[in-house]
Amino acid sequence: MFGLTRKKRALREAGWGYTAICTVIGLIYFSPVLWMILTAFKSRQDALATPPKLFFTPTVDNFVRVFYRLTTDGEQLSTGMGLYFFNSIFVAGAGVLLATIIGTLAAYGFSRYPLRGNDTYLFIILTTRMLPPIVVIVPIFLMFRVTGLSGSYIGIILLYAMFNMAFSVWMMKSFFDELSTDVEDAARLEGASDSTVFFKICVPQLKAGLAATFVFALILTWNEFLFALLLTGNDTRTVPVAMARSMGGQLGVDWGLLSAIITLFLIPVFIVTYMLQNHLLRGVTFGTVKK
Question: For the range 262-265, what are the long-range contacts, defined as Cβ-Cβ under 8 Å and sequence gap of 24 or more?
Fold first, then answer.
C-alpha cells in the first residue's frame, strides 16, 4: 500500500504529460524485445508469415525444443541447453564476483593510499580494456593450451575476472573518492584497524556502488561470445556459443527456437537487475549531487 502511494506521488510530481512521453519512448525501445518474446510463442509458420501476425495461437513448443529434440524414432533427446544455461550463470557470476571483490580492494588502495604515479597505474589498468578481444585472443589461446586451462571452468572464470578488473577498479574508485574520510579518521583514532574501517565503515556505504558495478560487469560478461567460443569445451560451453550453433539448419534459421533461447537467456539478468534496482539507481547517480 505504501509502495503504491509512493508511486502515485511520484507520478504527480513528474506530471502526466512527461510520464506519458517517457512511456511512449520506453515502449519504442522495448518493442524489439517484445516482438522477440512474441515470436518465441509462435509456430514456425506464424513466425515466417508475411505480413507479420500480431494475433496468433500461442504455443510453448519452442521452449520445449530448447531443452529437448525429437529423433526420427520419436524419442526425446536432451539438447544440453540446461547445462549451457548453468555454465553461463556459474561462469559469469563467479567471474564478475571475483572481479568485484578484487577490484573493490584495489580501488580502496588507490583511493586512500595513492602512490607516486597513481594515475599512471590506473591508466595501465584501463589499457587492459582498450584492446578488442580479437586482438588478444591468440596469445590467450596459446597460454590456455600450455597451462591446460582450455575448456575448464577455472580458465574462463579467471579470464572474465581479469577483463572485468579494470572496470571494477575504476568504478569503485570513483565511489570511494566520493566518501568523506572524516568518519574513517575518527574510527582510526578510536583504534580501528584498516580492515575494520574498510568492512565496517566504507563497504556499508557503497552497497549501491557495488550493485551498479556488479550489474554492469555482469551484462558485459553475460553477452561475451569470442572467448567462450574459442576457450570453452563441450562441458563448459555457454549459451551464446550454443545459440550460434543452433541457428543454422537445412530449412534456414528457426526464428521461433532462437527467440525462445534469447527470451530464457534474458531472464537471469532481468532478475538480478530487478533485485538490485533500488541500489542500482543510486549507484549510477552516486556523486552527481553534492550534499
Answer: 262/36, 262/40, 263/36, 263/37, 263/40, 264/63, 264/66, 264/85, 265/85, 265/88, 265/239
Task: Identify the sign of the CA torsion 114, 120, 124, 129.
Answer: positive
* pLDDT digit string, tens, across residues 42-59: 988 888 888 888 888 899
In the block, cell 515502449 appears at 27
Distance CA 265, CA 88 (A): 9
CA distance 132 to 173: 24
Structural domains of the chain, with CATH: 2-78 (no CATH), 81-284 (1.10.3720.10)
pLDDT digits (tens, 9 = 90+) for 168-226: 999 999 889 888 888 888 888 888 888 888 998 899 888 888 988 999 899 889 989 99
Q: What is the 3-state secondary structure (H, E, C) of the chain?
A: CHHHHHHHHHHHHHCHHHHHHHHHHHHHHHHHHHHHHHHHCCCHHHHCCCCCCCCCCCCCHHHHHHHEEECCCCCEEECCHHHHHHHHHHHHHHHHHHHHHHHHHHHHHHHHCCCCCHHHHHHHHHHCCCCCHHHHHHHHHHHHHHHCCCCCHHHHHHHHHHHHHHHHHHHHHHHHHHCCCHHHHHHHHCCCCHHHHHHHHHHHHCHHHHHHHHHHHHHHHHCCCHHHHHHCCCCCCCHHHHHHHCCCCCCCCCHHHHHHHHHHHHHHHHHHHHHCHHHHHHHHCCCCCCC
